[in-house]
Design goal:
This is AMP-binding protein. The chain is 27% helix and 26% strand. It has an eight-stranded mixed sheet.
């Protein structure tokens, strides 16, 4: 039972006396207090900006929870971002403290060893950096997954608490659960899985291989995972590798968010779950809403298979009458974007989140997404800014005769007018810089790129030409 008198997420997590963390790599279990690190004394500043480049190992969880307990503001980032992108971000935001297990001490920083009861690691500190941070800001997440975009979402301690509580309200989490951390912690969906389960779950397993790795499924059997969280790509791959032909007695529920999963695959997984008394939760959200906006009650999914469902507890959805854009309001709505250091001193009181998604409400009160206003797509669950990718490729190839668009949240289509373009080399470059898999990148040659009446690139015509090919 979650205490209603406590308004601090970390303190509420400490009240969960059943909580145990298992490090799958070492097959050892720890209580939260055993993995915490003495980070309070790492800097002379009581509140500063901290960059955490995280994977899903026990060290990452230890450093994250230790700083969550502190007064510092945390920027959560992928540990696999290209080194140049890391350096650009650090130059822009000037963090006082950096955690990055994948590199040597950055220029201008001093290494400081931090010793806990079971976790020992190194942090990098630059006391000359003292970025001004608004009191409300606790966590900052990138809007573009692993691309290293300087655009960050500003979230408060109350945002992350309210989001976690709302998820606990509808997911059947209890002290007997064994929850795998199989999604990145820098991703709002993955972070919400960690928070909600740390509040109510019994065991959290970290240090896992990829969910598509055979060893993941061996560990599922070994530890008895009670749930799995996945983005559309994961479910598409699970369907392909035969998940639906096997039995997993420990599974109590599975959840899906991070983009639209095709109707036929949702139906297949829902039928599988209905036959085995497993709950299948289809959810919708955005980083700007600290992850979650709506969900489909499992008892209603069969008859609302294409819906994003109903608002979470304490949330409200409306549809803009003029633009048909889905608008969301609730205590988990962010405090604006940061595109540079100066933005960290500002907190915006945003009453309604403009999601950029076109939607409608059906007669039963369920909401449906029918398109996007923005040039942002989700590929493999990662938000990708098409304008950013397009600018990068144009610069790399020194050409302007090129355009990027997205196809069904599965493909980044590169339209170009260059007969000699080295497609494998370009795919490799994009992967090395943005960690976008080559299988998600397609090419389409045009003698002349389609344009509209204003002589701007006609992305719809590009997509139509590709789909009609």
């Amino acid at each position: 039972m979650i205490s209603e008198n406590n308004s601090n997420l970390f303190e509420l997590i400490t009240e969960n006396k059943n909580l145990v963390f298992i490090d799958a790599k070492g097959d050892k279990s720890f209580h939260l207090n055993e993995i915490l690190l003495p980070v309070e004394s790492i800097s002379e500043q009581s509140r500063s900006l901290v960059f955490l480049y995280l994977d899903t190992n026990i060290d990452a969880l230890a450093v994250y929870f230790s700083f969550l307990k502190s007064d510092h503001a945390l920027v959560l980032l992928s540990d696999s971002i290209d080194i140049k992108l890391k350096e650009n971000l650090e130059k822009e935001y000037e963090p006082t403290i950096i955690y990055d297990a994948n590199r040597e001490t950055p220029s201008g920083y001093q290494p400081k060893e931090v010793l806990g009861d079971v976790v020992h690691l190194e942090l990098f500190v630059n006391e000359n950096f003292n970025t001004e941070i608004h009191d409300n800001i606790k966590i900052l997440l990138s809007t573009s997954g692993t691309t290293g975009s300087p655009k960050l979402v500003k979230l408060s301690a109350d945002n992350i608490l309210q989001n976690a509580l709302s998820i606990c309200d509808y997911l059947p989490i209890n002290s007997k659960d064994v929850t795998p951390i199989n999604l990145p912690l820098h991703y709002s969906y993955g972070l919400s899985v960690l928070h909600s389960n740390a509040l109510l779950s019994g065991t959290i397993v970290c240090g896992l291989p990829d969910v598509l790795d055979r060893n993941f499924w061996k560990l599922l059997s070994k530890y008895g995972f009670s749930s799995i969280a996945g983005v559309p790509f994961i479910y598409e791959m699970l369907n392909r590798i035969g998940f639906l032909k096997k039995e997993y007695p420990s599974l109590k529920y599975i959840s899906q968010a991070g983009g639209n999963l095709s109707k036929n695959i949702k139906e297949a997984f829902n039928n599988y779950c209905l036959q085995r008394d497993i709950n299948f939760f289809v959810m919708y959200g955005q980083t700007e809403a600290t992850a979650r906006i709506s969900y489909v009650p499992t008892s209603e999914l069969k008859n609302n298979i294409t819906s994003i469902g109903i608002p979470i507890k304490n949330g409200k959805i409306t549809i803009d009458k003029e633009t048909e854009e889905l608008l969301y309001s609730g205590p988990n709505v962010f405090g604006g974007y940061a595109t540079g250091r100066a933005d960290l001193s500002i907190w915006e009181d945003i009453k309604e989140l403009k999601t950029g998604d076109l939607a409608y409400k059906d007669a039963s009160g369920f909401y449906h997404i029918k398109g996007r206003l923005k040039r942002i797509v989700k590929v493999f669950g990662n938000r990708v800014n098409l304008d950013e990718i397009e600018a990068f490729i144009k610069s790399s190839l020194n050409t302007s005769l090129l355009a990027c668009t997205g196809i069904d949240d599965k493909i980044i289509l590169i339209a170009h007018c260059n007969n000699t373009i080295d497609e494998p080399k370009l795919k490799k470059l994009i992967f090395e810089t943005y960690k976008i898999q080559g299988s998600a990148i397609k090419f389409k040659f045009f003698e002349v790129l389609p344009v509209n009446k204003n002589d701007k690139i006609d992305y719809k015509a590009i997509s139509a030409s590709f789909l009609g090919a």
